[in-house]
Amino acid sequence: MRLLTAGESHGPMVLAVLDGVPAGLAVSPAEIDVDLRRRQLGYGRGARQRIERDAVRITGGVRQGRTTGAPLALEIVNRDAVNWERVMSVEPVAEPPDPVTRLRPGHADLAGALKFGHADVRDVIERASARETAARVAAGAVAKALLRVVGTDVASETKSIGDVVSEPRFDREAVEASEVRSADPERSGAMVAAIAAAREAGDTLGGVVAVRATGVVPGLGSFAEWDRRLDGRIAQALMSIQSAKGVQFADAFAAASERGSAVHDPIRVRDGAFVRDRNRAGGLEGGVTNGQDIVLEVAFKPISTLMKPLPSADLRTGEPAPALVERSDVCVVPAAGVVAEAMLALVLADALCEKFGNDNVDDLCAAVERYRRRLRPLDARR
Ligand code: EPS
Fold first, then answer.
1. Mutation test of ligand 1: which of 54, 83, 243, 328 has the most ligand atoms closer than 8 Å to its C-beta?
2. pTM of the predicted model as reported, rounded to 2 decimal places
3. What is the pLDDT of residues 278-299, one digit of tens each?
4. Residue 57's domain spans which residues?
5. Ligand 1: distance of its center to the CA of 48 in Å?
6. What is the total count of domains within the chain?
7. Cα(266)–Cα(143) distance, rounded to whole angstroms?
8. Any idea what the CATH number is for the domain that residue 115 is in?
């Protein structure tokens, strides 16, 4: 499965092209829109989310409610684009917009301008923006639909915002009812207060998102080649989310200071099946899924556009200049959880198709069913 996204934050649309989805999968725009909506929510989002009503238009790969096996084209219109026509014009305009040259520490502004040789940081901002995650979430909703067919479900919950921490319970109803996507009502309130205080101070807040996949097919990924290890592929996908700065499987950083006997998950057989009584591996051993839940966390830095800007420099003159101030979010952690679900779903769906084939969804299901029947001790298979 391959995903490409295109489009600028204030251009006409963001677009996802998702290739390799098996034919015969039921896909509906309404189902994708549920996740697009979830991505727009969350206390601490900026004014942009009041302008947009993200909804997908499927312009390829689906007919009569089912995938055809051709690449899916998923378009999400930027309603704000009408306010940016001159700035974002494809053709040169008579009165060109003033270039952005004040660099925001923490954003892609400086690194991107130097790399591509841009004189206007707008060329970086537009594509580095997390607006692009709308395309990822649309594609991720299709991946989730495929995973559901084999019984795999992906969910997320906010674990912390600023210094307010709550232990994730993955109570879906409570998570979705919370403005910050935390199932703990008391901590939710404290998180909202922390975001409000950061906003008041012209500052921003980051946090940690917990992500979990249940009903995972064992044997996805491989130990045999570094680039096929699935934990590595999952970490890459999650680290690619705008603002992500760290990933850990289960409680890896705490486990690093413990002894092996406390960290590894004893194996036993119950009713003819291999089982574990704990899951400190986070669902993968040797880069391969072991059938336990995949459990991981992603750390998101506080967003880098600050209303009270940090000292910085001007790209053109090199003179000291405060960083650019423009409309932004105070905290994106709740939305980032929805994006993290999408990225985990895309990697898992890709690994599933790699192992079982991606021509036809019924063929894939039959192959998974047959495979599951041999996942027993050798002597029990006879
Ligand atoms: C975003 C839309 C953007 C930002 C945000 C993510 O809209 P605008 O730039 O028009 O306000 O709100 O992007 C960033 C925080 C960033 O640093 O680029 C969205 O739809 O998710």
1. 328
2. 0.98
3. 999 999 999 999 999 999 999 9
4. 2-381
5. 7
6. 1
7. 32
8. 3.60.150.10
